[in-house]
Amino acid sequence: MKLYLSRASKCFVKLAILLAAVFAAMSLTGTLNLEGFMAKSAILGAVIVAWCLVYPLASFTTVSVRMPFDAEQLRNVMASLDYRPENGGEDVLTFRARSILKRVLWQFDDRVTVRRDGSFVDIEGLKRIVPRIETRLKAGNHL
Protein backbone atom coordinates (compact mmCIF):
# COMPACT_ATOMS: atom_id res chain seq x y z
CA MET A 1 0.00 0.00 0.00
CA LYS A 2 2.88 2.35 0.83
CA LEU A 3 4.44 1.75 -2.60
CA TYR A 4 1.08 2.34 -4.32
CA LEU A 5 0.59 5.69 -2.53
CA SER A 6 4.16 6.72 -3.31
CA ARG A 7 3.77 5.96 -7.01
CA ALA A 8 0.36 7.66 -7.20
CA SER A 9 1.59 10.81 -5.46
CA LYS A 10 4.73 10.98 -7.64
CA CYS A 11 2.49 10.75 -10.69
CA PHE A 12 0.27 13.54 -9.34
CA VAL A 13 3.22 15.85 -8.67
CA LYS A 14 4.68 15.21 -12.15
CA LEU A 15 1.34 15.92 -13.85
CA ALA A 16 0.75 19.03 -11.73
CA ILE A 17 4.16 20.43 -12.71
CA LEU A 18 3.53 19.63 -16.37
CA LEU A 19 0.09 21.22 -16.25
CA ALA A 20 1.42 24.34 -14.51
CA ALA A 21 4.10 24.69 -17.21
CA VAL A 22 1.51 24.36 -19.99
CA PHE A 23 -0.79 26.92 -18.39
CA ALA A 24 2.14 29.30 -17.78
CA ALA A 25 3.13 29.04 -21.44
CA MET A 26 -0.47 29.63 -22.50
CA SER A 27 -0.71 32.65 -20.19
CA LEU A 28 2.54 34.13 -21.54
CA THR A 29 1.38 33.73 -25.13
CA GLY A 30 -2.07 35.11 -24.42
CA THR A 31 -3.93 31.96 -25.44
CA LEU A 32 -5.33 31.24 -21.98
CA ASN A 33 -8.96 32.24 -21.53
CA LEU A 34 -9.66 32.52 -17.80
CA GLU A 35 -13.39 31.80 -18.12
CA GLY A 36 -12.75 28.62 -20.10
CA PHE A 37 -9.88 27.68 -17.80
CA MET A 38 -11.99 27.89 -14.64
CA ALA A 39 -14.80 25.84 -16.20
CA LYS A 40 -12.48 23.14 -17.44
CA SER A 41 -10.06 23.02 -14.51
CA ALA A 42 -12.42 20.96 -12.33
CA ILE A 43 -12.85 18.36 -15.06
CA LEU A 44 -9.13 18.34 -15.78
CA GLY A 45 -8.38 17.97 -12.07
CA ALA A 46 -10.73 15.00 -11.81
CA VAL A 47 -9.10 13.34 -14.83
CA ILE A 48 -5.63 13.85 -13.33
CA VAL A 49 -6.66 12.38 -9.97
CA ALA A 50 -8.31 9.42 -11.70
CA TRP A 51 -5.18 8.75 -13.79
CA CYS A 52 -2.95 9.01 -10.72
CA LEU A 53 -5.05 6.38 -8.96
CA VAL A 54 -4.87 4.02 -11.96
CA TYR A 55 -1.23 4.64 -12.94
CA PRO A 56 0.42 2.39 -10.30
CA LEU A 57 -1.89 -0.48 -11.23
CA ALA A 58 -1.55 0.00 -14.99
CA SER A 59 2.20 0.62 -15.20
CA PHE A 60 3.77 -1.84 -12.76
CA THR A 61 3.72 -5.61 -12.57
CA THR A 62 5.15 -8.57 -10.72
CA VAL A 63 6.05 -11.73 -12.63
CA SER A 64 6.92 -15.07 -11.05
CA VAL A 65 9.42 -17.21 -12.94
CA ARG A 66 9.96 -20.83 -11.93
CA MET A 67 13.73 -21.14 -11.81
CA PRO A 68 16.56 -21.31 -9.30
CA PHE A 69 17.65 -17.99 -7.84
CA ASP A 70 21.05 -17.34 -9.43
CA ALA A 71 22.25 -13.90 -8.32
CA GLU A 72 25.21 -13.89 -10.71
CA GLN A 73 23.03 -14.68 -13.74
CA LEU A 74 20.58 -12.03 -12.62
CA ARG A 75 23.34 -9.41 -12.29
CA ASN A 76 24.58 -10.30 -15.80
CA VAL A 77 21.07 -9.97 -17.28
CA MET A 78 20.52 -6.65 -15.55
CA ALA A 79 23.92 -5.36 -16.68
CA SER A 80 23.03 -6.26 -20.27
CA LEU A 81 19.87 -4.15 -19.86
CA ASP A 82 21.97 -1.23 -18.51
CA TYR A 83 20.90 -1.62 -14.88
CA ARG A 84 23.19 -1.45 -11.87
CA PRO A 85 22.69 -3.14 -8.48
CA GLU A 86 21.28 -0.74 -5.93
CA ASN A 87 21.36 -3.07 -2.96
CA GLY A 88 21.22 -6.76 -2.41
CA GLY A 89 20.60 -9.30 0.21
CA GLU A 90 20.39 -13.03 0.26
CA ASP A 91 16.84 -13.23 -1.07
CA VAL A 92 16.19 -9.73 -2.49
CA LEU A 93 18.11 -7.74 -5.12
CA THR A 94 17.24 -4.22 -6.26
CA PHE A 95 18.44 -2.60 -9.47
CA ARG A 96 18.29 0.94 -10.93
CA ALA A 97 18.97 2.19 -14.45
CA ARG A 98 22.56 3.33 -15.00
CA SER A 99 21.72 6.11 -17.43
CA ILE A 100 20.35 9.32 -15.95
CA LEU A 101 18.59 9.92 -19.28
CA LYS A 102 16.74 6.60 -18.96
CA ARG A 103 15.84 7.40 -15.36
CA VAL A 104 14.45 10.80 -16.35
CA LEU A 105 12.52 9.39 -19.32
CA TRP A 106 11.02 6.72 -17.06
CA GLN A 107 10.29 9.45 -14.51
CA PHE A 108 12.52 7.88 -11.82
CA ASP A 109 10.22 4.83 -11.65
CA ASP A 110 13.03 2.62 -12.91
CA ARG A 111 13.58 0.42 -9.84
CA VAL A 112 13.40 -3.35 -10.39
CA THR A 113 13.16 -5.65 -7.38
CA VAL A 114 13.88 -9.37 -7.63
CA ARG A 115 12.90 -11.68 -4.75
CA ARG A 116 13.41 -15.35 -4.11
CA ASP A 117 10.13 -17.02 -3.21
CA GLY A 118 10.80 -20.73 -2.77
CA SER A 119 11.41 -22.18 -6.22
CA PHE A 120 10.16 -18.98 -7.90
CA VAL A 121 11.86 -15.71 -8.71
CA ASP A 122 9.52 -12.71 -8.42
CA ILE A 123 10.41 -9.73 -10.61
CA GLU A 124 8.68 -6.44 -9.80
CA GLY A 125 8.96 -3.24 -11.84
CA LEU A 126 7.68 -1.32 -14.83
CA LYS A 127 5.65 -3.33 -17.32
CA ARG A 128 7.99 -2.23 -20.09
CA ILE A 129 11.12 -3.79 -18.54
CA VAL A 130 9.91 -6.85 -16.56
CA PRO A 131 9.09 -8.97 -19.67
CA ARG A 132 12.59 -8.29 -21.05
CA ILE A 133 14.18 -9.47 -17.82
CA GLU A 134 11.96 -12.56 -17.72
CA THR A 135 12.80 -13.46 -21.33
CA ARG A 136 16.53 -13.10 -20.80
CA LEU A 137 16.47 -15.09 -17.57
CA LYS A 138 14.54 -17.91 -19.25
CA ALA A 139 16.90 -17.87 -22.25
CA GLY A 140 19.87 -18.37 -19.93
CA ASN A 141 18.14 -21.12 -17.94
CA HIS A 142 17.26 -24.37 -19.68
CA LEU A 143 14.82 -26.01 -17.23
Write up what this structure looks like.
- By secondary structure, the protein is of the alpha+beta class.
- The chain has 2 domains: 2-59, no CATH class; 61-140, TATA-Binding Protein, CATH 3.30.310.80.
- Helices cover 57% and strands 22% of the residues.
- It contains 5 helices and 5 strands.
- It has helices spanning 2-29, 34-59, 71-80, 100-105, 130-140; strands at 60-66, 83-88, 92-97, 112-117, 120-126.
- The protein has a 5-stranded antiparallel β-sheet with strand order 1-5-4-3-2.
- Helix 1 (2-29) runs antiparallel to helix 2 (34-59) and helix 3 (71-80) crosses helix 5.
- The longest helix has 28 residues, at 2-29.
- The protein is elongated.
- The two termini are 35 Å apart.
- The mean pLDDT is 85.
Give a brief outline of the structure.
This protein has about 140 residues and is of the alpha+beta class. The protein has 5 helices and 5 strands; from the N terminus they run H-H-E-H-E-E-H-E-E-H.
